Amino acid sequence: MKTLRLLLGDQLNRQHSWFEKVDGDVLYCFFEMRQETDYVQHHLQKVIGFFAAMRAFAEELREVGHSVVYVKLDDEDNRQSLEGNLLFLIKKHGLQRFEYQLPDEWRLDVQLKEFCGKLDIEAAAFDTEHFMTKREAIQEFFGKKNYLMETFYRDIRRRHGILMEGGKPVGGQWNFDAENRKKMPKEHRPPEPLLFEKDLSDIAEMIDKAGVKTIGTVDAKHFIWPTNREESLELLAYFTQNLLEHFGDFQDALTPEYWALYHSRLSFALNTKMISPLEVVQQAVQEWEGRKDEISIAQVEGFVRQIIGWREYMRGIYWAKMPAFAQLNFFGHQRKLPGWFWTGNTKMACLRHAIGQSLQYAYAHHIQRLMVTGNFALLAGIHPDEVDAWYLGIYIDAIEWVEITNTRGMSQFADGGIVGTKPYCSSANYIDKMGHYCNGCYYDKKLRTGENSCPFNSLYWDFYDRHRDKLENNPRIGMMYRTWDKMAPEDKEGILKQAAVYLENIASL
Ligand SMILES: Cc1cc2nc3c(=O)[nH]c(=O)nc-3n(C[C@H](O)[C@H](O)[C@H](O)COP(=O)(O)OP(=O)(O)OC[C@H]3O[C@@H](n4cnc5c(N)ncnc54)[C@H](O)[C@@H]3O)c2cc1C
Ligand code: SF4
User: Fold this and answer.
1) With a 6 A CB cut-off, is 366 part of the ligand 1 pocket?
2) pLDDT tens digits, residue range 106-115?
3) What pLDDT was estimated at residue 179?
4) Is the shortest distance between the CB of 367 and ligand 1 below 6 Å?
5) For 486-503, how does the pLDDT look when each residue is reduced to its tens digit (9 = 90+)?
6) Which band of pLDDT confidence, cut at 50, 70 and 90, is reported for residue 86?
7) CATH code: domain of residue 273
8) 146/121 same-domain check
9) Domain-terminating residue out of 126, 145, 162
10) How far apart are the C-alpha atoms of 77 and 75, rounded to whole Å?
């Protein structure tokens, strides 16, 4: 045995060229470590999901003849850190070479580079062969110019010939957003989400026994997330066959009745690399091609845009802007997240539901993350470090490269406009327009002031007023200030006073 190859928990790519042939001189290793369970407080389902997927992948490799060392969290030999475990194995097996796949997270990239720098055996890093673009793609593509998702997305579509016809986008346009994003009619019933029902209580018990601090709950006897490639492919097939037809229509819809709507819930399978972005979009396009009478181009384009547009773009931004990105705080926000972000115990119906389902399923869909929880955190002036730690912990799909760019960038505008051209925020108006939360809420969506006025309404204007110097000259926002300036001074004063009361009493909203 000569070479040690490391596989991290989000490097479960069975299609990788490493596995094309069995080599008796290669030893693969996987580690469940406190280093990874403790760098942020994760949702219990996230820790279980990662460990179960790693175990399943290690087993698959063994079954086809690869040599594998799998170190469980409670193994006696576990050094609980990457360096400790790697050095232990290198010494134990007399290994002469170390290889790893390029990590997607900055902290692991630095850690592994430093580790290799100190090693007295040869070391090499390999691509993960998962993404459709390179780490450096954004910088190479845009140079110093603004990073526009749309331009990047079109380029990927052209290069891979996805939804293209004679060099032109299928359907004659690149973007069908105007046809998507509808409110879901009250009586509309989306299909039930496909849930797996595996008994992973042994992993849950091990985590509990080790004293790992986690967020949220789990029914470990009926674990719902895919933890191997077959299940990931099953989830993909379920999505294309049952959900794609309304994906775009209800992509931004909000409702307390359903937690997954027409979303694919493929982010965990994708981010652990059990399936690849290319196969996901190809399957969606293939389904659309076979059922054009049932699935409109707007649905499939809307989906493809998320995967090869937003997902690849966010990864590019991460590598172009880290590590400085993790320190950005454009608005200088300092407030702490209120405690109810960990319980869902708030009178605000939209937040109660979005947080409640996040605790229950380790999942919320994009608009819940952006326009409910993220919107509130932005308007309330929460420190981006606090917001990042919450998002990085609570979601099953949260890995820093895609979490921080979405949270600190898209949602909190803490990057001052690298990801988005203006902050994504709204009053109750948008939340009501897109969903069914407001009617059952303790607060009144129409009121800006008074005891039961919706907090989003006063906090919205307070946010714009507080940050006038930073936002007024943004051409996409100017209108907002003109509306604000036209309001009667006593109305403005009342709104700002109401916002101050709410911020003072944020813990009991
Ligand atoms: C504040 C905030 C934090 C987020 N944190 C994460 C995170 O930690 N991990 C994560 O994977 N996504 C994150 N997202 C993006 C998006 O919300 C999730 O990818 C999506 O909700 C996952 O559910 P789904 O698989 O059902 O997605 P669908 O709605 O079915 O979309 C399909 C796929 O498109 C990709 N996608 C969609 N939107 C984005 C986006 N904005 N950025 C990158 N990929 C996207 C995902 O891979 C997703 O699986 C975040 C968004 C916001 C606003
Ligand atoms: S009234 Fe306000 S707090 Fe209540 S659900 Fe609507 S937006 Fe949320």
Assistant:
1) yes
2) 999 999 999 9
3) 86
4) no
5) 999 999 999 999 999 999
6) very high
7) 1.25.40.80
8) no
9) 126
10) 5
- Of the bound ligands, which one is closest to the alpha carbon of residue 428? 2
Provide the pLDDT for residue 43: 98
Compute the distance between CA of residue 480 and CA of residue 459 in angstroms, rounded to an integer. 14
- Token pair of 414 as six digits: 């803490």
Pocket of ligand 2 (CB under 6 A): 348-350, 428, 431-432, 437-438, 441, 443, 445, 454, 456
Could you tell me what percent of the chain has a pLDDT over 90?
Answer: 95
Q: Which two tokens stand for residue 140?
A: 């190479």
Q: Is 405 exposed, middle or buried (0-12, 13-18, 19+ CB in 10 A)?
A: buried
pTM: 0.97
Tell me the pLDDT tens digit for each residue of 182-220: 999 999 999 999 999 999 999 999 999 999 999 999 999
Q: Cα(first)–Cα(last) distance of the chain, in Å?
A: 61
CATH number at residue 440: 1.10.579.10
Mean pLDDT, rounded, of the chain: 96
Report whether 362 contacts 43 (CB < 8 A): yes
**Test site for ligand 1: of 150, 308, 361, 366, most ligand atoms within 8 A of the Cβ:** 366
Q: Mind giving me the DSSP string for 417-468?
A: SSS-SS-----HHHHHHHBSSGGG-SSBTT-SSSTTB-HHHHHHHHHHHHTH
Note the ligand closest to the C-alpha atom of 367. Answer: 1
For ligand 1, say whether the CB of 270 is within 6 Å of any of its atoms: yes
Question: Which residue is associated with the tokens 């576990």?
Answer: 78
For ligand 1, the distance from its centroid to the CA atom of residue 59, given in whole angstroms, is: 29
As a whole number of angstroms, the distance between CA 24 and CA 3 comes to 10
Last residue within a domain, chosen from 98, 126, 154: 126
Total number of domains constituting the chain: 3
Which of 306, 358, 411 should be mutated for ligand 1, with most atoms under 8 A from CB?
Answer: 306
Q: Are residues 174 and 304 in the same domain?
A: yes
pLDDT band at residue 145, thresholds of 50, 70 and 90? confident
What pLDDT is stored for residue 1 in this prediction? Answer: 63
Secondary structure (DSSP) of 27-60: EEEEE--HHHHHTTT-BHHHHHHHHHHHHHHHHH
149 shares a domain with 96: no
Is 90 exceeded by the pLDDT of residue 146? no
Task: Kindly identify the ligand whose nearest atom is closest to the C-alpha of 460.
Answer: 2
